[in-house]
Hints:
The chain is mainly α. It has helices at residues 2-8, 22-38, 47-50, 59-82, 84-115, 133-141, 151-161, 163-172, 176-191, 193-196, 210-225, 227-234, 239-263, 275-281, 289-308, 310-326, 328-350, 358-378. It is 70% helix and 0% strand.
Amino acid sequence: xxxxxxxxxxxxxxxxxxxxxxxxxxxxxxxxxxxxxxxxxxxxxxxxxxxxxxxxxxxxxxxxxxxxxxxxxxxxxxxxxxxxxxxxxxxxxxxxxxxxxxxxxxxxxxxxxxxxxxxxxxxxxxxxxxxxxxxxxxxxxxxxxxxxxxxxxxxxxxxxxxxxxxxxxxxxxxxxxxxxxxxxxxxxxxxxxxxxxxxxxxxxxxxxxxxxxxxxxxxxxxxxxxxxxxxxxxxxxxxxxxxxxxxxxxxxxxxxxxxxxxxxxxxxxxxxxxxxxxxxxxxxxxxxxxxxxxxxxxxxxxxxxxxxxxxxxxxxxxxxxxxxxxxxxxxxxxxxxxxxxxxxxxxxxxxxxxxxxxxxxxxxxxxxxxxxxxxxxxxxxxxxxxxx
Length: 388
């Protein structure tokens, strides 16, 4: 059995010689899959796999961390091949692309909200907060306003704007010149959120405050930049112990999550914890410490599993997850339009004479959207227009 696991591992396959780390692509593809599924309403058995945005960690954390990690790797490689100025320029061009995508999506969905009656996947109850299209346009162009869902893209854009400075500091200095200020800013936001908020208030961007969520991106960036040195350093430790601890934390959190779902607001029978305190400790918006611990444990378990069970994972999931992960930005942008399509045509399907039950209808619809997204990625539909 041990010999079989060794032959299944990533390092023993030809994939390990690939310039891209396909394990990271597969995990990022799962994050895209989870985002698409979780953005549906209703109940679905798929939420047992994705967390349904109700667990103590979500796909958003993985998506942002991996984006930083991939960027650190890519621009380190670009710097080594073409020099630091070329790598910094490439980061700024990427920021420009993201900026255009953010503004365009924000304007499209705001116009649909103002001038149509079509169903929007976020609903219409929350409002825009701005009724003038001219004001919306100016606020979008200055990144003072986003539509729900484009807030992550706005944050990503701002992070890429400072990427050249981060790359410069990592190239001429030490990693702690970047990591210490990043974690101190995150800590300041935990205690003084109003005073630590940067760079400015973004309407509808409250769910992903930059001061808190930048810590995942920046940490991923630093780890990706020092990938080879980090790998060498980790070989000195007993990784099995780390994985066992991470697995224990992840399983414990899963059990607590199930108990909280069953408790329905009451205290847990097996230990005296106020559910309100528990929720605050894992609160997603400010990225509380408990949520970072949850993400770290799940990330370690996920990456280790992808390393040692790579061959069976690629055979079963690679056809779907790898294309989505390698075109993550494209997938994230396009899935908004697919959800728009679903939310306007799903009521027609639900009104058919055979009256499908929600337990069947919702997961089937979710799987159909994921497969449609996969087809668009494989066919490279509009790749020249939509950022990839």
